[in-house]
Prior knowledge:
Oligomer: single chain
Order of helices and strands: EHEEHEEEEHEEEHEEEEHEEHHHHH
Strand content: 25-35%
Shape: globular
Amino acid sequence: MIEIQSNYDIIIIGGGPAGATAAHDLAKQNRSVLLVDREGRIKPCGGAVPTKAISEFDIPQSQIVAKSNAARIIAPSAREVEMEIGSIGYVGMVDRDKFDPFLRERAQKAGAHYVTGTFKSLSYNSDGSIKVLVQDKSAPDVIHEITGKTIIGADGANSAVRRAIFGPKKKPPYVFAYHEIVKTPKNFDPYLFQTDRCDVIYNGEISPDFYGWVFPHGEHTSIGTGTAIKGHDMKEATRKLREAAGLGDAELVREEGAPLPLKPMRRWDDGKAIVLVGDAAGCVAPSSGEGIYYAMLSGRLGAQSAVKLLETGKSRSLRHARKAFMKDHRVPFMVLGAMQYFWYSSDKRREGFVKMCEDKDVQRLTWESYLNKKIVRKEPMAHLRIFIKDMRQLLGIPARS
C-alpha cells in the first residue's frame, strides 16, 4: 500500500477511462500524480471501442470480451439493414466493471498513487497551488488534505470539479442513458440475436430522440436506451428491446442509469490550473453516444496540458486539451449533432435514415470514419452520391428505378 503524500504535481479526480489514461501517461513521464476515484459505480455504457482505440491506447486483447463484425439497424417499421464491417476492422466490446479497474491498475503500475475516496472541495492557496479535500472511502472519518500544482477533473457527467470551478449552471446538454446487463443465453434465435453483431434500434417507442441498443459482450449482453425527454419509461423500453431480441427471460446481472453528455463544453479550463476531460468536459459523440475513445483521448490531451502548465507556468497551456481535441473532431461532432437533431426527430425521418443505411457507400464510409475516427475525404464521388441520396430522402423524391 502506497502512502498518500500531501503534495503532488497533478491530482486527477475520477478514475474512468479519461482519468486513468491521464494518470497512466503522466506516471510514465515520472510525474508526481495522484488518482482519486470513489469506485463502486459502473457507468451505463454499450462498451464499444473501435480498433483505433485498441491500438492507440494499447488495450490488450484480454479486455476485449467480444468482437462485432456488423451492426443491424432497425427502423420503426421493422425494416432491417445489416451493415457488415468487412476486412477493415471490428468493434471491440469491453465490460466497464473490469475495464475501468484495469486502467486504474495500469496507471498504478506505471507509478501513479491511488486513493479510493470522494472529492469534497477545492480551493486555491496563495501561491497558486490547489488544496483538495478527499473523503477516504475505507475510513469515512478521514479527510485527506492534498495539495496539487494542477488538477484534472475527470469525474463524469455530474462532475463536482466542474461545479466547483464553473458553478452548477454550466454543463453540456444530456440524454439520460439506462441499460440492463443480462447473461447471454447459450441457446438463442440467431435471427433475433447474434453474438458478433450489434443491434441499433431507431424507434420513437424505444426512444423519442435517441436510440436503443443490444450489444453482445460475450458472457453478457448490454441492452438499453437513452433520451432527454422526461417521463419516457426507459425500463419499459428496455423490456421491449429484450423481448424483441429473444432475451426477455435472460438472467439480469445488473441495471444502471446515468446522464450522458452529448456536446463538448465551450471551455474546459478555469484559466488558472484546472482542466476538465472526459464526460466532465462533454466528450461524447452526438448521435452515437460513443464515449470511451473520446474519454481516453481527452485524458491524454489533458495530461499534455498539465505538463505544459508545469513546464511553462502559463495558464493558457491548459487550453491545449480542448483546442487539440476540437481540431480533429469539431467537424465530425457537428455532422453527428446535425444528424441527431434532424433524423432522430420523428419516426418518419428515422425510417428515411435507416433506408439510407442500405446504401453500400454509406456503409463503407460510415465504418471507415467510425473505426479511424475521422471523416473519410478521399472519395469525393462517394460523398456526392450520398449527398444526392440524402436530398432525395429529405425532399421525398423517389429514387430512379
